[in-house]
Amino acid sequence: MSQRNLEPLDVGAIREEFPVLQREFDGQQVVYLDNAATTQTPDAVVDAMSDYYRESNANIHRGIHHLSQEASIAYEEAHDRVAEFIGADGREEIVFTKNTTESENLVAYAWGLNELDPGEKIVLTEMEHHASLVTWQQIGERTGADVEYVRVDDDGRLDLDHARELIDDDAAIVSAVHVSNTLGTVNPVAELAELAHEHDALAFVDGAQAVPNRPVDVAEIDADFYAFSGHKMAGPTGIGVLYGKRELLEEMEPFLYGGGMIRKVTFEESTWGDLPWKFEPGTPPIAEAVGLHAAVDWLEEIGMERIQAHEEEIARYAYERLEAEEDVEIYGPEPGPDRGGLVSFNLEGVHAHDLTSIMNDHTIAVRAGDHCTQPLHDRLGVPASTRASFYVYNTREEVDKLVDALEDARQLFA
Ligand SMILES: Cc1ncc(COP(=O)(O)O)c(C=O)c1O
């Protein structure tokens, strides 16, 4: 891993690599604070994908012609690059999916449906995204396994005593979000994985909000599975990643069947190809893999530690400015090492959707709703919240614009 470098980013120069950030609506420049939903894409990624289409486009693993060979190598190398980026032990442990949601479903179907028995436990947390929560609920219903939730305390942190209670010898899998997309909480996922392993349970980590903005090493966490999406880390939509320990992936049945994932097929039966191709049937997202490779290069060139430091600094500033407003309620822990780069909040007397619409009048893009964490919002006692989420190109001035726009909402609604 590169030397720890916390030099401030040249945000002005970085912003120039994102033409979309220069866009104006009604004469006002876009303030893009919806990065937890999707980050913007730098020129380097767009160029890598358009170069691929212009110069190397072909299907992979099926042709011996030059273009197919080039495309196959590019696709395979993208696996190698992602493996290196997250500390996996080679391309065999990196499965390309459509997104985090599909990565969750892959494990739920290919492992959960086959392995879970009635009375066993699927342990989640109250702050899981629906991608994990709904998926495991379904697997629980179909297998008779019980789904239990580690409580979130009033500060927005996991109650680890409760986790120790729930994770016992009946637990078969523990699935936890690494960074909460609503509370911003950074969970102690290595500790949860250790707890799971003490009871012979597997550990799944949803890293959709972690990989984009902090160094992640799956071996250090000792996760059995780790999932994330390209479109939240300066990469393209249409590609996600499932990391899985090689021996587990080898034992697992495929999730989807078809061409490209087989070794031998007869009219009677079929056998499966090598990892990771066994889990990647059909024509995969080839250009997207090229884009994801470019995104990883781009992020690492800046440095993940610096990205994390920048994002935390902007989020802390946003937290402090919002906290100073008496009619604003913020959710999640105070700024510190266990809080990531987003802030969800409500303005007293104003529904989150109305607030977001006022923000849009100022060309400020934030997200309103439950952020795919409905049960967590029930737990917080609010139907919805407004979320501002930051990335490598955001500035304090943009946070100021967000806070200034609250005054309009007060005038109109409160
Ligand atoms: C924590 C978390 N998990 C999972 C997802 C689902 O990601 P995707 O929509 O890319 O499948 C998201 C997206 O918002 C997320 O924030």
Automatic annotation (TrEMBL):
Pfam family, one: Aminotran_5
Cofactor(s) required for function per UniProt: pyridoxal 5'-phosphate
GO molecular function per UniProt: cysteine desulfurase activity; pyridoxal phosphate binding
UniProt key word Transferase: yes
GO BP of this protein: cysteine metabolic process
Enzyme Commission no: 2.8.1.7
SUPFAM superfamilies: PLP-dependent transferases
Domain Aminotransferase class V: 31-402
Family according to the record: Belongs to the class-V pyridoxal-phosphate-dependent aminotransferase family. Csd subfamily.
Name of the protein this chain belongs to: cysteine desulfurase
Species assigned in the record: Natrarchaeobius chitinivorans
